[in-house]
Amino acid sequence: MSSSTQLIPPDVGPPGILIVEDEQVTALELQNRLRRLGYRVTGVISSGEDALTSIDERRPDLVLMDIFLDGEITGTQAADVINQRAGIPVVYLTAYSDPVTLDQIKKTEYWVS
Predict the structure, then answer these.
(1) How far apart are CA 12 and CA 50, in angstroms?
(2) What is the number of alpha carbons within 13 Å of residue 23 lying toward its C-beta?
(3) What's the CA gap between 21 and 70, in Å, rounded?
(4) Third-level CATH fold of 19-95
(5) Angle 48-58/75-86 helices, nearest 10 degrees?
(6) SS3 label, residue 38
(7) CA 15 to CA 73: how far, in whole Å?
(8) Cα 53 from Cα 30, distance rounded (Å)
(9) Helix ranges, 1-113 (H)
(10) Tens digit of pLDDT per residue, the chain (113 long)?
């Protein structure tokens, strides 16, 4: 990547982004795109439980969170705990636009992509 297309200033370390996504193809594509853009991917995790146990050791600057994950904890539940525990911003990723899912997201007041 040339310096003219790089999004991260060279004198600042790249922000760390944690991907929480249970669809492996989607997670890999996100990871590759973020790295090409100059971001540091701190990890790719498929469950809310694993996201909660790893957040302290990985210390990302941002979390990209799927709504429906492997395990018992949903993305919205994990995001609430992450916000309370670490104050790390969470951006939701979801293919669902049904009223129930959107209401879940609205209650947490996070960004949706």
Answers:
(1) 29
(2) 11
(3) 9
(4) Rossmann fold (3.40.50)
(5) 20
(6) coil
(7) 26
(8) 22
(9) 24-36, 48-58, 75-86, 99-108
(10) 444 455 655 566 789 999 999 999 999 999 999 999 999 999 999 999 999 998 988 899 999 999 889 999 999 999 989 988 998 999 988 776 667 766 776 667 555 44
